[in-house]
Write a structure and sequence with these properties.
It is a single chain. With 386 residues, this protein is an all-alpha fold. The protein has 18 helices and no strands. It folds into three domains: 160 residues, no CATH class; 141 residues, no CATH class; 30 residues. Helix 3 runs antiparallel to helix 6, helix 4 packs across helix 5 and helix 12 packs across helix 16. The chain is elongated and about 145 Å long. It is found in: Membrane. Keywords: Membrane, Transmembrane, Transmembrane helix. It is a multi-pass membrane protein.
Amino acid sequence: MNNRDYNTTKEFHEDNNSDPQNAAGDPQQDTDRGLYFFLLDAVMIFLLVINLTWIVFDWLFEYQIIYDFLFGLAPGFTEMYASAIHPRFIVIDLIFVSVFLTEFFFRWAVAVYKRIYHRWFFFPFIHFYDLLGCIPIGGFRFLRLLRVISIMYRLQKAGFIDLSDTPPARFIRKYHGILIEELSDRVTINILTDVQQEVRHGGPVVDRIVSEVILPKKESIVEWMSHRIEKVSNQNYDNYRDSIRDYVKERINTALEENSEFARLEQIPLFGSLVRNTLEKAISDIVFSVINGIMQDLASERNKFLIDETSDILFDAILLKEEDTELNRMVTETIDRSLEIVKQQVQVQQWKLRDLADDEEDFRRRLREELMKAADQPENHTRAEK
């Protein structure tokens, strides 16, 4: 259903090389045309409601129990209907059908004139239910109900009516959303399950993720790794400087104690222990100074190029190493677990959560109303006593 049934816009005429005199558009003329279409739709709804009601009535009239009931209420009308109208049901219905077909072809002509659709013959395919409803055979007649719905939709879109907040509209909107959500969830879960199976059995998904997702982002990832190295070096090194110094000193002491050549220094008369301790401290200070300089250089902007190169080499070593089964296994498990978490989230019925939230809000509203009523009752009682 298209809202353009109600509007003739100047943009449309200009795009389709229409008459220049009409291209400017006349607001009053557009309003009149919209009113004409509104009246036409109102008449069609009136006829469709009468026609559908009469079809249901005539169908029920064939049952003996309904016939007897009507005969008891209005014998004259029942006999007249049974003799004059019921036998001519098809003929009378064809009169309605002729009106419906006339309106259908009129709208088709308007759609062709205004070039609403890409091809002139698209209209009957898009509004197929209108044509099928005009077939005067059995269940096809009840397709005219869809015509009523389509007209109401057009009126809603055009702004002539507003049914969005009515109970039927809320009901349809709610269960339409539930249906769409359930269907989309099933489709999504099936797709994710197929992807999981492909990942588990060594399909090309992992390789495609690496080649089409990760590698094109190589520069950004390397930049991020470099930034993280700089940030860690800058923020955390000062907190662990003393611990690193003690560790270096301990390791050097252990190494010197195990070195036999260094132990001979203690055999020097008078100054042996002093020389040994001095050398041990000097070596510890030199090693720590080297480590401290390296860490400070990592946190310096001057060595950004070196850090970037190191991160780039590390990135290539991780991703481009051939036959790295451990890496492939970790990537496969990570993707599989991630997809499983997504499936679990998809399986959560969001419409139930929304219903629970609405019920909770409704309960709170009613509770507030009851509390306010309970608070007002003592005041009213006091005033009555006074």
